[in-house]
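INFO  loader      accepted 1 record
INFO  loader      residues=170
INFO  predictor   begin
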Amino acid sequence: MPTHRIGEVKIVNQSSLNLASVSVIHKYSDNYKNQLDWTNVPAGGSTDTKNVDYHTGFLTTGTDWWLITFCDTQGKLYVSDPTNFTGLIDFITGGIKTIAELLDNVDQRAAVAAKVASLFMNDEKVSGFKEHMLRSEDEERPTEIIIKNQGDITLDSKSGKSNTVYRTAN
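INFO  predictor   done
INFO  writer      dumping tokens
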């Protein structure tokens, strides 16, 4: 019997970028969808925790999928880019770049990461999402999404780590 669990997630910014906003879409198969948004995450800083839903237990067949978008204080948009990306970056680059160029200040541009993430909230596809499974022990400490320099992201849970990369989308 599956057990509903609630895990905590936080952003750790180990990059040299000051981030105006960070958005994370977490999907546990088609059972749960969470959009988490943070603003003003300085280089070297971290955020408070926010909750995601998932299942564990006997006969659990779901998968945890993650999409990370963030915007620096200069208005540049970044998107996690695991190897399963197909046309997602091209879609974002074509559509969102135009939106970002129309916005005339950093506060407006900061909202772009959340808007990009929300496009994928209700889509059942997981192309472009990074798989990182949560286990029962992950309720015991927050999963850290660590944004690093050189285009690297680590998802660090008590049960294990997953790595992916990011790149600019505009």
